Amino acid sequence: MRVLLVGSGGREHALAATLARSPQLAALFIAPGNPGTADIGTNVAIKADDVPALIAFARENNIDLVVPGPEAPLVAGLADACAKAEIACAGPTRAAAQLEGSKKFTKEICYAASIPTAQGEYFTNADKAITYVRERGAPIVIKADGLAAGKGVVVAQTLSEAEDAIRQMLNEGSMGDAGRHIVIEDCLEGEEVSLFAFCSGDKAVLIGAAQDHKRIGDNDTGPNTGGMGAVSPPRGFSREDQEKALDLLVRPMLHEMLRRGISFRGVIFAGLMLTKTGPQLIEYNVRFGDPEAQALLIRLTSDLLPALKALADGTLETASITFSDKAAVSLVMAAEGYPEKPVTGAVISGVDAAAALEGVQVFQAGTKTNDEGDLVVAGGRVLSVCALGDTVREARDKAYAGVKKISWKGAQWRTDIGARALES
Questions:
Q1: Check: CATH 3.30.530.20 for 191-318?
Q2: Is residue 333 within 8 Å of residue 382, measured between CB atoms?
Q3: Terminal CA-CA length for the chain
Q4: How far apart are CA 320 and CA 317, in angstroms?
Q5: Distance CA 67, CA 311 (A)
Q6: What does the pLDDT look like over 294-320, one tens digit per residue?
Q7: What is the pTM of this model?
């Protein structure tokens, strides 16, 4: 098969590396890709959300399957354009991608399908929103309605923090168009986990689960980020628990979508809170997570490519998905100043030395090659250093050993990824 993978982050580098193992792969193109994916396939200078250019390239190069990585091209209608061009696409339509593109839409689906989730309300007026949070109290969660690259959520511990977030989003435009409408939710308590499944129509096939670490600082301090590291599988969330969560939180959503005339076909990434009363939905995403995908995919023992093709063709029941019993840890190394104002341009060293360690893989994200041929920082989240081990402790030790081999001016990372998952 000739495959076009869309995206440029660590998730896409991990997807590219996984797809490259398939004996069914004839050619792999990545748009736009990064220096890491260039070692696996052919990078194409097309932005991930430039849907017309992606379709034109797919037609000209006889692409058999388009694999979307990030959410933006899906919300922009990439799958719809692929269908019109009669090109298989392993992702949902624009209508189905509203599950990620609009927090308000997700709440409506949850309430209609009786899916356990936090109580929430939708606002466009800051004064009305502030009145609401004063009635509900803190802690409370403020969410930009639209896509904000994983940074559109503020878990406000005080009313003052909540009011500041509301004013910044609604009055000052801190999140751009994504934050012109907001959803305010009660704050759920418990362990947060990420659940992944291939979904088609009313069918959901479990992929697996991971636990992300969203805050920039150790002990879950500082602002939210796109994710600073992940552990798979998460402690205290067995395969049996994961299947039960699909029955409770994913399959009812698929049925409600069908009732509305929207058939979902793609990857569902459900962010869940494991509360004292059971799992509750935080949000749906319509693609693999980042950095969860990196931790999940290095555990995959089956062939991803035919599974994605079956998903695109609506023959999900034929897909084979198997994982190693080993544990995986993914550590994100970020640029100085991330997530507010990442400092770019620093030369990165030690990537090859880290990747040479047993059980360690390094996936690139915010990188580029400068005029001198050096690998340099070009974004906020720069690298994902991942490792497999018989236990979380072993995988964690290997991943941190990899991190120690890599350096650039101002590099930052959390030192406690996976600490809660260590054996007691």
A1: no
A2: yes
A3: 46
A4: 8
A5: 11
A6: 999 999 999 999 999 999 998 988 888
A7: 0.92
